[in-house]
Amino acid sequence: MNMTKVILLFMIMLSSLITMSSNNWMGMWMGLEINLMAFIPFISKNKNKKSSQAMMIYFLTQSLSSVMFLFSILLNAMLFMSPMFIEELIKMMILISLMIKVGAAPFHMWLPEMMSNLNWLECMILMTWQKLAPLTIMNNMIPNNMFVYVSSVMSAMMGAIGGLSQTSLRKILAYSSINHLGWMMLFMSMNSAWYKYLMIYSMMIIMICLLFNMMNIYFINQINSSSYSLTEKYMYIMMLLSLGGLPPFLGFLPKWMVIQSMIKSGLNMLLLIMMLFSLVTLFFYMRMMSSMILSYTMINKWNYMNMNNKLFMFMIMIMNLSLPLSSVFSFF
């Protein structure tokens, strides 16, 4: 990574912090615009059509959402003493602009198409840090209306159904991100601890993107292109099951928090729908790992791995197993 990429990465992080620390709408909008203008050159590559397509998709969608966001806040400032239905309409327009930015359903179609043109490190930033600023603004609005519930269920549904027919690992993780975003928005409407969900989800995505980057695989049929050790298989399976929210792995912990909040709020039917679509996501995670499970491993290659890979595998195992156990013990 050269110095230009380091500076752009610093600007991406700084712009999100500007948005989160602002106490007025214009400061938040300014931080989002700086973030947009820093991320576009970050994903650029010379003489690469896929990179150009990804930059164009990201610029058009984010510009559309920024224009809608700016128009809504200016309209809100002009109509200071407006009727109640006008205020609700402006609030809904701001929510729609933020949903476009994070890729929530039904404004999600740009995210899988864009991620299929990026490398793993750029996908990792797009699925983790780039969601932080828009979700923080959304949380400040206290979005506990029916529109957020509908978008959350649609995100869970589209994220589950959309990943069934995909063979690209980047598109599968994009639809998985849309599904998790539905859970996150639902948690946000009931509890202010949504950042815990985002933090744990970001840890899982960082681990799995680094693993795919280390293996250099982008499609399902590339998983068996080389022989993996038993340790690498266990780590791969453990991370996918954790991302699917299967207990007792780390990914079940945030979904457990959402389930408890929904039961306390009396949203039992909505909880049943979300859990059913979460089960569908677990199906295509199993499809990603089934060929690796059925393939035969001759020897355990742990002794032949270098020290960096050993430390990475050990870190994955500790994070996926010890954190859920410690959280369970904290309840007693």
UniProtKB/TrEMBL annotation:
Please tell me whether the keyword Transmembrane is annotated for this protein. yes
Chemical reaction(s) catalysed: a ubiquinone + NADH + 5 H(+)(in) = a ubiquinol + NAD(+) + 4 H(+)(out)
Q: Which UniProt keywords apply?
A: Electron transport, Membrane, Mitochondrion, Mitochondrion inner membrane, NAD, Respiratory chain, Signal, Translocase, Transmembrane, Transmembrane helix, Transport, Ubiquinone
Q: How does it sit in the membrane?
A: Multi-pass membrane protein
Q: What is its EC number?
A: 7.1.1.2
Q: Name one GO cellular component term.
A: mitochondrial inner membrane
Per UniProt, subcellular location reads as: Mitochondrion inner membrane
Domain (NADH:quinone oxidoreductase/Mrp antiporter transmembrane) ranges: 22-278
- GO BP: any one term: mitochondrial electron transport, NADH to ubiquinone
Its main localization is mitochondrion
- Lineage: superkingdom: Eukaryota
TM stretches of this protein: 55-80, 92-111, 146-165, 200-221, 233-253, 265-285, 311-331
> Which Pfam families is this protein grouped with?
Proton_antipo_M (PF00361)
Q: Where is the signal peptide?
A: 1-23
GO molecular function: any one? NADH dehydrogenase (ubiquinone) activity
Q: InterPro entries attached here?
A: Complex_I_Subunit_2, NADH_UbQ_OxRdtase_chain2, ND/Mrp_TM
Q: What does this protein do?
A: Core subunit of the mitochondrial membrane respiratory chain NADH dehydrogenase (Complex I) which catalyzes electron transfer from NADH through the respiratory chain, using ubiquinone as an electron acceptor. Essential for the catalytic activity and assembly of complex I. Core subunit of the mitochondrial membrane respiratory chain NADH dehydrogenase (Complex I) that is believed to belong to the minimal assembly required for catalysis. Complex I functions in the transfer of electrons from NADH to the respiratory chain. The immediate electron acceptor for the enzyme is believed to be ubiquinone.
Family as reported in the entry's similarity comment: Belongs to the complex I subunit 2 family.
Its recorded name reads NADH-ubiquinone oxidoreductase chain 2
Give the gene that encodes this protein: nad2
